[in-house]
Amino acid sequence: MYARTWVRVRSIYGEPLWLVVGIAFPLFTTFGLGFLYRSSGVGALAGFAVLGGIAVSFWSNVVWSMATQFYWDKQEGIFELYLVSPAPVSAILVGMSIGGFVGTAPSALLVGVVGWQVFGSAVTPSWALVATGFVLTIVALYSLGMLLASVYLAYGRQAESLNDSVMQTVSMFSGAYFPSVGSGSPFPVSLQLVVSLIPLTIGMDVLRKAVFSPLTSAFPTVYEDLAILAVLCVVFFVLAQWAIGRMRERGRKKGTLVVRQG
Amino acid sequence: MLRPLFASIWMGWQREIGWGNPVVAILARSVAPAAGALTAEIVYWFGASAAGLFDPGRLAYVVVGASLYGQVALYAYVPTSAISEGKNSYVFPQVFMTPSSSIPYLTGRCVASFLESVPVVVISVAVCALVSSEFFHATLPLIVSPLSVVLFVTAMALIFPSALGLGYLLGSYAIFASKFEWAVPSYIAGTLMILSEALYPASVLPWPLSTIALSLPFTYFMRASRDVLLYGSLSRYVTDAGVAFLLGMPLLVLGLLAFRAGENRGRMKGFIDRKSM
Q1: Which of A218, B190, B209, B228 yields a CA-CA distance of 20 to 30 A from A161?
Q2: Where are the domains of chain B?
């Protein structure tokens, strides 16, 4: 786990351009949607766009550097090394998650600092709730990334080609930039229940409530959100472990575990 | 000149759409742009409703711009993608070893992407209109008639030289770059989203961004599209589409010169077939 973390951290911090590359999508989207909030008459809500930009930095890392990583590793012949090493695959995935988080943190921080400088949104943070919500959101998101890594490995190119669609669609449904659950949501209740299964949805709801409490809805309460998020962390982590086992078993039976796709 | 151009258009179409059923491929291509446009639509709805200033006309303004900017960015990125991907797949070396320049090849690939983008924009606007009607109970005041559609597609064609010029400029960079070319579309799309009046008028931006926005051909393309789809103003359309086209010409010439220079230097120095990471 430590070894995989170290490789990922080194690969990101050893190439300063990664910071520039990683910040592009969330920063531009933050600016665009922040100015849209401002032009729509409520400049105070521009902070939602900034918060969304921070979360999307991590979501982007989960999609592009967690979900697809094993597939790319297989294509480049590294995945065999993981399989023959005595380390459990789950430890490698956890190491990848920690490294990905540490590598993404500067980009996310930069989005937050620049965003708040430009839009100057008033915040009323409850730091304990912010910290708890943030940690649980990150754990749930990277657990989902571990689960997706197995799915992408099993389905290869078909899954990889869906990456861009998954990235944008989940960002939209999870309400990274606007509330998608609760009283401010544009979605019907049935859809809100479905999108609540995405950790980013509940995570964003917690963070918005913890940072901008006067601007957010009262239901569900922040503590209810935290409880749901904690459950999602456990569920996705367990599912990820199960999927890794299934992926190995299926790959061994079919002989496709290390077969590269053209 | 025309034969390689048509061959490249066909090749680009096969790469983007020909991997499966064309309808499924177009629908699959439309998911991400439609989701992006919906995000902007909902952000406007949420913000304007909170302020008590919701206006369906303004919602349509956001929908049209949000559906368009990503597509312009998409075909501006094609030369970069064709070069970096082509280096890795050995397609690009086969193009540049021909006696002519790679320009007809890249132009053809851009045209294929442009052809693909027209239905994607239509689908994106249609999805946003449906969501607006179902969820916000607001009908987008879009003017959809044969004339407005023809003028809108003409506006898309008139901005094509600008996107092509930008594409050549980025393509000249891609000849020498060995990593991170895949990040280029985020930068183009992001810049267009902020500066081209895609989501809000340029007056919202602080100086000097507002001035830069008014000097971009893409800003006038957005205006021309809205002139026909929202305001029904032919006179404003002619002016805005004309300005978009005229501002795009220097960009196209600059892009062609930069690409020609880059290609020659790339051939001499051996960069042209160096694989990217």
Answers
A1: B190
A2: 2-273
